[in-house]
Design a protein that fits this description.
The complex is a heterodimer of chains A (about 220) and B (about 230). With about 220 residues, chain A is α/β, with parallel strands linked by helices. Helices cover about 35% and strands about 25% of the residues of chain A. Chain A contains eight helices and nine strands. Chain B has a single domain, classed as MetI-like (MetI-like fold). Classes of the chains: A alpha/beta (about 220), B mainly alpha (about 230).
Chain lengths: ~220, ~230
């Protein structure tokens, strides 16, 4: 379980995130939506421990190294083969090569296993980074726009890979997305952020089909489910 | 000017003892100082770029200031430390190659550290987030950062090597340009110019450029062989 109390994160004078209280239950699948600059990435980076809160407390039972898998919005491709990149996540574990190949197969990138990672396209880099995160079981999976640069044909495969992983590991999933169909498919609850604050929080179908808040309605008005 | 290079080669091939000594001292001093500065400056530069700790910005500012340290000031500082009244007089470093190397290390280390810091600072954050996002430790993340800094490492070393070889102010003050002992290319060029022996000075200058070219070619070949 993850709990946030009176959490505030500022960048200079700007308040990027201001959450009085938020609880994410173990095994839950939470989608974080909102316009650019609404605080989605800040929330995920905070949950991943990449940044600290200026005020308030973030509590999680998964705050142990290796138990959190975090996919940043702009993942980095290390200067080695695609497979070696995935094997990094499995350091010190048995059958690294085989498990790395399995992870690459799940995201449809096995054919590029021997390719140099820093020569991949943006979408391929994102898929490789996802394979790194999915290569081992984790308690908490944090994905910052996991299909932002990925082509339409591969999106379905990635969504299936995420769902399979969550089903197999029983992990908690928190992800940000701009696609309502993705939020509908992958999440059980939706958190709509508005200027760093909670605009709306509730059941996925309810928030997406019948938003109660004006800010959520404005954000969703051009979406076609 | 036309005959300078030919004269330099002729002197070298003839095994001119003075030229051979100047060349030997120059190479020993430059290699020792640039490698020591690399060993100290590269990890320090990576640390400044990647670690977050109180006082980091002040250290970056100090390092940037030290990159502009005038060589004669550095030479004077070392001279005062090594001379008969200085605190390090017991080490007998004045007018020795070791003393010249120390002066150069003080000059070059901030340059290499600053070059590394500038080169990798933009990749550190995405790299750190990806590494930590996989659950890697701080130590492993630091090693990965060093591995990702290979290109910056080469270019920073060449920068330091070039500075060490071309430096004249500090080495002339600390070394004293003693023939067959501490006279290096740059101090010898100054000396022969002052004596009016322009052709010999030019010949040395050409050799200096040739050495720089050879080192850059070797670095390029090494760079390609490690796939940077």
């Amino acid at each position: 379980m993850i709990e946030l109390f009176d959490v505030q994160k500022r960048y200079g004078a700007r308040v990027a995130l201001d959450i009085p209280a938020l609880t994410i239950e173990a095994g839950e699948r939470l989608a974080v939506i909102g316009p650019n600059g609404s605080g989605k990435s800040t929330l995920l980076r905070l949950l991943a421990g990449m940044i600290g809160a200026d005020e308030g407390v973030v509590r999680s039972s998964a705050f142990v190294r290796g138990e959190i898998g975090y996919l940043p919005q702009k993942p980095y491709a290390f200067d080695m083969s695609v497979q070696k990149n995935v094997e990094l996540a499995l350091a010190g574990e048995p059958n690294r090569a085989k498990r790395a190949q399995e992870a690459l197969e799940r995201v449809g990138l096995l054919h590029l296993a021997k390719a140099r990672a820093n020569r991949l396209s943006g979408g391929e880099t994102q898929r490789m980074a996802l394979a790194r995160v999915l290569a081992k079981p984790r308690k908490l999976l944090l994905l910052d726009e996991p299909t932002a640069c990925v082509d339409i044909a591969a999106i379905e495969q990635i969504e299936r890979a995420i769902l399979d992983y969550v089903a197999q590991t029983g992990c908690t999933l928190v992800f940000s997305s701009h696609a309502p169909s993705q939020a509908m498919l992958l999440s059980t609850r939706v958190l709509a952020l508005d200027g760093g604050r909670i605009g709306e929080l509730g059941d996925t179908a309810q928030v997406l089909h019948d938003p109660q808040e004006e800010s959520t309605r404005a954000f969703l008005k051009n979406w076609k489910l | 000017m036309n005959g300078a290079f030919a004269r330099a080669l002729a002197l070298l091939l003839a095994g001119d003892p003075l030229l051979t000594s100047i060349l030997r001292v120059t190479l020993i001093m430059t290699f020792c100082s640039s490698m020591t500065a690399l060993l100290l400056g590269a990890p320090y530069g990576v640390l400044l770029a990647s670690a977050r700790f109180p006082g980091r910005k002040a250290l970056i500012l100090i390092n940037r200031t030290l990159t502009g340290l005038p060589p004669v000031v550095c030479g004077l500082f070392c001279y005062l430390q090594f001379s008969g009244t200085g605190p390090l007089r017991g080490l007998h470093l004045l007018f020795t190659v070791a003393g010249m190397v120390i002066a150069q290390v003080l000059l070059i280390t901030p340059i290499i550290a600053g070059s590394m810091e500038t080169a990798i600072t933009h990749i550190v954050e995405p790299m750190r987030e990806s590494a930590r996002g996989m659950g890697l430790s701080r130590g492993r993340t630091f090693l990965l950062t060093l591995n990702e800094s290979k290109y910056a490492l080469f270019s920073s070393y060449l920068l330091g090597f070039g500075r060490a070889m071309a430096e004249v102010g500090a080495v002339s003050m600390v070394g004293g340009a003693i023939a067959y002992k501490t006279n290096v290319m740059t101090t010898a060029i100054m000396m022969y110019t002052n004596m009016g022996n322009f052709s010999y000075a030019l010949a040395l200058g050409m050799l200096l450029l040739l050495i720089s070219l050879i080192v850059n070619i070797l670095a390029h070949v090494l760079q390609r062989s490690v796939g940077v």
